[in-house]
Design goal:
- The protein contains ten helices and ten strands.
- With 361 residues, it is of the alpha+beta class.
- Strands 1-5-6-4-2-3 form a six-stranded mixed beta sheet, covered by helices on one side. The chain has a two-stranded antiparallel sheet with strand order 7-8. It has a two-stranded antiparallel sheet with strand order 9-10.
Length: 361
């Protein structure tokens, strides 16, 4: 891989010719873990530091996934769940294959069911044949590491930690986390948004959007009924917060003595401009997230039907690896016009949304 690397916070991005990508895309942002290292009790600090370290070890390294990869027929799910048994060896031992009966282990079943729900959204709504559109197997590893406070997509498969039990519960618990991480795979095969700055925040936002749509579809929720929280149910009762991020009110998801306060902006005037978190990829995603939420609310109905389709077409057919917010906004507005007509209700809603968050005037 050709390598310009950004070593700002232990999360490396390798830019390669085929598709620029982050070898490890995690759900819990580094700033949250860093706050735990500063504010947590001895045990919590140890686990957070351990999680940051383990994530950093993945820099520039990709794990070879065992098993034979073959393309199944379109519309045929191929889910395989592995158990790392608290080791860091991937993928681990096969514990549930496609069509196997449920396990007595909740994490195995959650990983299996939520990967299926994500596959179904992409296949049934967007006519996409798995993550790569060619029937890619959906491999997941549960029980990764000891009390590992994260979940990630490593370019080939999903990996879930069990959480420390004091701040975080098991990471298979939130269906939108699973949809979020698998969508990093879709972005990797499509727009290839580089994992830095505004393109990186768009990459994170796409994962939040489609992760939320997976949850909304499983729950059959309209835009008004959805909670628009990412990682709802992930925190233990000890944490003062609803989830990791809020799409409808960025910056309000949590405010906790140990985890700190949600730093997400909802408007360009408050955009984070530091180098941490790969130039704010998990922080500034609040801006495009809020734009999607506003557009979905104005368009109404089920968010995956029209608003989701607009963003999906843009992700697959229009966006390029280094697009910034303004370029993305203009492309998404254009797609809305192509799909639903120039100056249609849908296009106006999308334009209004990007104006309200200050990306376009």
């Amino acid at each position: 891989m050709a390598g310009k690397k950004n070593n700002h916070d232990g999360f490396d991005c390798e830019h390669d010719h085929q598709h620029s990508r982050c070898p490890i895309c995690c759900i819990v942002p580094p700033h949250m873990l860093e706050n735990i290292v500063v504010n947590g009790n001895v045990e919590q600090r140890r686990w957070a530091f351990h999680t940051l370290n383990m994530s950093a070890q993945f820099r520039g390294r990709r794990d070879i996934i065992g098993g034979i990869n073959f393309a199944p027929s379109p519309g045929e799910k191929r889910r395989t769940i592995y158990d790392a048994k608290n080791s860091q060896n991937l993928p681990g031992e096969i514990v549930r294959a496609e069509g196997d009966p449920p396990s007595t282990d909740e994490a195995i079943n959650e990983a299996y069911d939520s990967a299926g729900a994500t596959y179904d959204l992409y296949y049934e709504i967007f006519e996409r044949n798995s993550i790569d559109d060619k029937g890619l197997r959906l491999d997941s590893t549960v029980h990764y590491g000891v009390k590992y406070d994260n979940a990630f997509w490593n370019g080939d498969q999903m990996v879930y930690g069990d959480g420390d039990g004091e701040l975080f519960q098991r990471f298979t618990k939130s269906i939108d986390v699973i949809g979020h991480e698998l969508t990093h795979g879709v972005t990797q095969y499509e727009a290839g948004l580089i994992y830095f700055g505004e393109p990186g925040a768009l990459n994170e936002s796409m994962s939040d959007i489609f992760g939320s749509l997976v949850k909304q579809r499983v729950k059959n929720q309209t835009v008004e009924e959805a909670d628009w929280i990412i990682g709802e149910g992930l925190f233990t009762p000890n944490v003062k917060g609803l989830g990791i991020r809020s799409m409808k009110a960025p910056g309000t998801a949590y405010d906790d003595p140990v985890l700190g306060k949600d730093p997400q902006p909802a408007h360009m005037k408050d955009k984070f401009s530091g180098v941490q978190d790969n130039g704010g990829v998990h922080i500034n995603s609040g801006i495009p997230n809020y734009a999607f939420y506003l557009a979905a609310m104005e368009i109404g109905g089920y968010a995956w039907e029209k608003t989701g389709k607009i963003w999906y077409v843009a992700l697959c057919d229009r966006l390029r690896s280094r697009n910034d917010f303004q370029q993305a906004a203009n492309l998404i507005i254009k797609v809305a016009g192509e799909l639903y007509g120039e100056e249609s209700h849908e296009q106006k809603a999308v334009r209004n949304a990007w104006q309200k968050v200050g990306v376009i005037t």
